[in-house]
Amino acid sequence: MNSETIYRIEQRKNNFMKAPQDHIGQRLNFAVHLRKNKRQQAVIKYREKNINSELQAGKEEITIKGRLEFSFGAIEKLLNFIDQNNCKMVLNQILIICQSNQDLKILDFPNLVLRFTDFLDSIYEDEISEIAMTILMVLTSKISYNPMLYIDSLDLNKLVLCLNENKPKTSVKVFKTFADLASDCSEMREKIISLGIHKKLINYSYQTNNIKCLRITSEFIKSLAIDQKTLPHEVFELCLATTKKFLMIKKTKITINSLTALSLFCRENLRKIQAVINLGILDDILKLCLHKNKQIQEASIYIIGNISYGDPPQINELIEHNIFNYLIKTIDSHSNSVRKETVYIISNIIASGNKYLQYLLEHEIIDKLICKLEVDDYHFIKELSFVFYNSSHLANYRNFRVFVDKKVFYFIKGPLCSVNPVSIVNCLKFIIAVLKVYGENDSMEAIESMEYTQCIDVVESLCNNPNTTVQMIAEDILEFFKKDMAYEFSWNY
């Protein structure tokens, strides 16, 4: 063993269980730092605990189903601790209590509502008023059993006064409160209208650029539109003008709400259908039927569907706006609802008279309609069958020739083979109408087309259908062929 190795061994022996002084100092400093850190953490917790204890003095705590519950009495005591210095902190504490408890019933403490509305005064900053408004929203979301009592207990004028640019956050909460109340029930909507609150909300929407407020206003108007049959005319006109303005904003949610409101407004009401047409936005609505957003597509085409329910002058408006140029695209939409509504609109249009059927037959969309008979979609085919059913009542020989020349009997086998009795009956009635008109014009082309396309074989199989109406119409159709065979036999003989 050399001297170097011996020296190192001796060194290790001498230094065993010892450490350099500077290392000891470092360790001591690190230990002090740890102790200070822990102490600081403890002090922070202690301070927080003291603050909470002071704020929550007198709080009633009971355990229900393993959860910590708080009563309104406790909240009221917390409110008594509020001063200018701790206002925000106390309100936040109350908000946490309200959000964590599902059983609080504010109607048991009617004066408490007014206590919170006091914080909506202009002397309080926006952030404090917003918290107070949030508390009211949280509490009132739990009183669906009698919301009318809540609105009676509110200082509504104070809420409306919060609608100003100096309190943008609170304004949004106020808008949201009234929108939620309006969506609740008809009685609530009537109350809001009777107090004139709708005017103040809508008028404020003309003064603000706050997109959240505008979006919530569009929800509010959509809720009012639910009662379109009982809605006062002046309220309807105000909502209609505002909805037109909202459509120009081009924000997705606002657009969807506005379109839905328009659809509700003009549902089965000729006067309101005309009012929507008079807005001068029919072209815009038709373009939105082709929008890439599915919800916008559906909301737009529902408006057109409601307009198609109208009288001939209103149907003329759709024709003048080249309705079929849009429907030829919507019939291929990815949305089942849009496709179904498309054929509903077409059946409504042609039901208004033969000239409208003629417009349809002169447009290339007729080819798509006939081809779509092969689509395997129960609800779509049911709606499409009404197009052919309505045609059977209005078409003349020239009209029916268009259908026959486009091989309608080949494609109509699809719905005839379906399990939907409505689709089957509608299509059978179309066939029998074609055969009658062709027979009156001494033409055998329809019968020959049915034989060539083997449509007659499908009709024959329907004589065994469990539905008696289907059986009867199928047998009536076969009578045309029996007569034709008898005629041919007598002629040959």
Automatic annotation (TrEMBL):
The answer to whether UniProt assigns keyword Ribonucleoprotein to this entry is no
Entries under SMART domains matching the protein: ARM
Database matches in InterPro entries? ARM-like, ARM-type_fold, Armadillo
Task: Give the GO terms filed under biological process for this record.
Answer: protein transport
Query: What keywords tag this UniProt record?
Result: Protein transport, Transport
- Keyword Transport on entry: yes
SUPFAM superfamilies per UniProt: ARM repeat
Family listed: Belongs to the importin alpha family.
Q: What is this protein called?
A: Importin subunit alpha
Native organism is Stentor coeruleus
